[in-house]
Amino acid sequence: MTAPHPDLPRILIVIGEPVSERLAGPAIRAWEIATILHAEGHAVTIASLRDVSRRTDDFDVVEFGPENAEQLVDDSDVVLFQGGFYASMPWLRDKPQVQVMDLYDPFHLEFLHRQHGMEKAEVDRVFAELTTELNAQLSRADLVLCASDRQRDLWIGQLAALGRVRPPLEVEADAAVLDDLVRIVPFGVPDSAFAPETRAIRGIVPGIGHDDFVLIWGGGIYDWFDPLTLIRAVDHAREHLPNLRLFFLAKVHPNAGIDGHAVPDQAVALAKELGLYGTHVVFNEEWVAYDDRAAYLADADLGVTTHHAGLETRFSFRTRNLDYVWAGLPLITTEGDVFEDLILRHGFGATVPVGDVEALSAAIVAAAADDETRARWSAAARELAATMTWRANLAPLVEFCREPRRSSVDTWNLVTAPPPVLPRTRFDDVKTLGRLLRTGGPSLVAERLRDRRRRAALAAVTASEADAEEEPGA
For domain 213-388, which architecture applies? Predict the structure, then answer.
């Protein structure tokens, strides 16, 4: 292990995902963050609330449990949290370390699509827990990480509801500290060029031959995705493209805690119903190891991702789409998310309307028939990849960790723990009167007095009506 620089802050990354060879998105991000910060000279530790089996000589990887959790935090200068567990450990809030909340994945919006088979009481409970978790993180955060401009707006809105979009503690501080509280730090691609030494699909996966035209779905199948439209589009497209194959890279998530998804089984059932299962649509049952994914991407012709319309889509950042970009794979996807914006801006693929089987089928057939267009899309993807490496995308976090600091914006939570605010006094009224006289004269004072009387009268009317509604049941 390379010795860290003694003068640089010590970094602890706490995650809720298992750390194994079969890394999923959040653990991939934590691993890459640790790798870059180690290269910068920091002493870095990844601590997981789940099992740990992947190791490296560059930084420590340990389990985060009751016997070592507080010591790990105390031994660090900066703690980066990722996942939905912070609210369950209230002792963390009072720790003096600089605390970074990695909210690149708005997990509460994902749950909007996961209510199948749940009673209303359970749905209400889960949403309350998710909201409480996010409020706990955002109310304490010294820095919030997100993946896009859209997500930044989302989290600033929730920070405003908590009372944290307000002037900083120091009167002379630059108002830009409010902007610095939420920084855009997207997922990235490896700094190294895409250069796989092996292949893993053609002639290896049963049902997929060397001359087939291969679509790859590069990540998990979750309820907020729409693989059913894609499978139906393949059914349509195979009439024009008999050698078309759709390969789902993974069906089962490596985190045993991520369960309850209905869509994977629905996708398999539809493929069987249409007579596509194992021939034109192939599911890889096991999660592919992180270091092996390039061999699968190298054997594909197009990357595909399809999703539903809605808030989850609008604020998502489809992390595995970046694997397509890294591999120089053109992308065909449905409209509505950040990658639609990127495709329009950089020209590395095509988008189709949500749920439109015919449009998706036509886009696939057209792409398969046009080698020149695919080559142009592929070149555009590689150009984009060069600008979205982990080192480039993590630059705002790297800069912050060189000189970390507690936020100068009050750590308020107006929802569950409103801070004491002094009521208005006569002295406050006198100061307000003086200011109004200076700025608008007696007429402005009279106008404001009329406003105050009107509001007081309206408040009384509302209270009276509420009392009247309660009387019959009293």
Answer: 3-Layer(aba) Sandwich (3.40)
pLDDT value of position 150: 95
The DSSP secondary-structure symbol of 320 reads T
Sheet containing strand 98-102, edge to edge, reads 60-63, 44-48, 11-15, 78-82, 98-102, 143-146, 182-184
Q: In the chain, where does the domain assigned CATH 3.40.50.2000 lie?
A: 11-188+393-402, 213-388
pTM greater than 0.90 (yes/no):
no
| Alpha-helix residue ranges (DSSP H) falling in 353-425 | 357-369, 371-387, 390-393, 395-402
As a whole number of angstroms, the distance between CA 169 and CA 419 comes to 14
The span from the CA of 309 to the CA of 467, in Å, is 43
Alpha carbons within 13 A on the beta-carbon side of 354: 13
Are 146 and 183 contacting, i.e. CB atoms less than 8 angstroms apart? yes
Domain 11-188+393-402 belongs to what topology? Rossmann fold (3.40.50)
Tell whether the model's pLDDT for residue 270 goes beyond 90: yes
Burial class (CB in 10 A: 0-12, 13-18, 19+), 347: middle
